[in-house]
Every structure is written in structure tokens, then in C-alpha cells.
Amino acid sequence: MSRKVIIAGNWKMNKTASEGRKLVEELKPLVAGCTEAEVVVCPPFTTLGAVVEAAKGSNIKVGAQNIHWEQSGAFTGEISADMLKEAGVEYVIIGHSERRQYFGETDCSVNKRLKAALAAGLTPIVCVGELLADRENGNTGKVLFTQLEGGLAGISKEDMAKTVIAYEPVWAIGTGKTATPEMAEETHNYIRQQLRDMFGNEVAEKVRIQYGGSMKAENARELVAQQNIDGGLIGGAALKADSFASLIKNALSACK
Ligand code: PGA
User: Fold this and answer.
1) What percentage of the chain has pLDDT greater than the value 90?
2) Which atom of ligand 1 is nearest to the CA of 234?
3) Average pLDDT in the 171-176 region?
4) Taking all residues of the chain, what is their mean pLDDT, rounded to a whole number?
5) What CATH number labels 5-253?
6) What Rg value do the Cα atoms of the chain yield, rounded?
7) What angle do CA 77, 79, 84 make, to 5 degrees?
8) Cβ of 212 less than 6 Å from ligand 1
9) Does the C-beta of 101 come closer than 6 Å to ligand 1?
10) N or C: which end of the chain has fewer CB atoms below 10 A?
11) Interatomic CA distance for residues 60 and 75, integer angstroms
């Protein structure tokens, strides 16, 4: 089963609209040949419009970093699926560890956001990952199991097949500490096994599982060469066109 590599840049709270437009303009020619990968950039809400405009006609897709589960109403500071759709967004990151850590995101809210994204036809990127203490205490499997069980509850097989999972060990995010390819593969394999148990083998084989956490051009090839690593969710290295483009090219050079 071959799964299309998906590399998504999570810009977090970086890049104004003009900066985002400039980055995409620089990125376009650099990744124009990378048609074997799905290339996604996820800017902040206020930068989405400019980036969608700039990416038009290219192979760069645009995602948001969050979505609310209600369609509209008194939810100050939140953004609905319709708003994202009309803005030209096709992907959305859900349950990033920074959302869980700083903004009280739970597996239950992840699940509600996921359902709203799927109902709107957006491609969700659902983030899971353990803290350093979890790994050191041998609790990685338990933590991931809970996140997957809660976050993916009540999702149909058909919808699950369209959902992307991002495995991001929290201790590797923005720290320069990457999980070794072997360590990441072991965890990706575990996640796919959980998906098999929950949704059956056919669906589990279709789901793309990205690695995230200090992924860069230098380690992308080795990571994506692993059987169960289908791409990356990239923070720091996605903020410059040349580093992001090199990462994508190196990931694609990992023939499987
Ligand atoms: P990083 O971030 O690549 O800067 O470690 C990854 C992420 O948080 O998605």
C-alpha cells in the first residue's frame, strides 16, 4: 500500500499577511516539481487570505491551525468550518500539543473539532504525542492510546481514511531533539496498530501518519524512509522557503 507523502508547515504564531505572501511566493518555484508530495502550509488565521491568494495555481495547499465545532455563535476568538472553507482552506491542524498545553485542549474537544472538520470536507491533521515524563516512565503507549481513543471516537471508517495523524513527541517540538528514525518508526507502528484495532486493517493502511518535532532537511529522508512515516508536520524549518523546500525534496528522495 503506497501512501502519498504529506509535508505540512505549521507556522504557529508567525508571519503577518505580507510576510506569509512573500514566503509562499518564494516557495512556489522551489516546490513546483514536488508533485509526488502533498505540500501544505498552515499560517495564522489573519494570514490565510493572503496565502490562499498567493498559492493559487500552484501545488501548495493551505491549512488552518484550529477550527471550532459550532457553525457560528457566541464563541469569542474561535473560527468555524464555513469561515475556513470560504477562505479557501483545505486542511486543518487539530489538537496540537501547544493547544493542549496552553489552551486547555482535551481529547474531547479534539474529537468535536475533528467531526466539524470532516463534516465540512476539510482534511484534518490530528496531533498526538507524549510528554518527556510519559516516555521516561514507559507510558508512551498508554498516552497515545488514550489520545487516539478519545480524539477519534465515533469517526466512521470512511472519514478516518481521510484523516491525517501527526505524531509529535512533545519533547522533540522546537527543542532540536528529534526522535531517532527507529524510535519514531516504533511509535508510528504502534499508532497504526491502534488504528487497525479501532477501524480495521484496510483503513489503518490508508491513514497517513506524519512525524513532527524538530524535523528538518537533514533528517527528513531518514525519517520518511521508515515504513510507517508518511511525511512531516514542520514548525521551525517551515518558516523559510529554502529550508522547507529542501526538507520536502529530501523527504521525497526516501524511496520506499
Ligand atoms: P518544530 O515544530 O518542527 O519546530 O519542532 C513542530 C510542530 O510543533 O508542529
Assistant:
1) 95
2) 3
3) 89
4) 97
5) 3.20.20.70
6) 17
7) 150
8) yes
9) no
10) N
11) 31
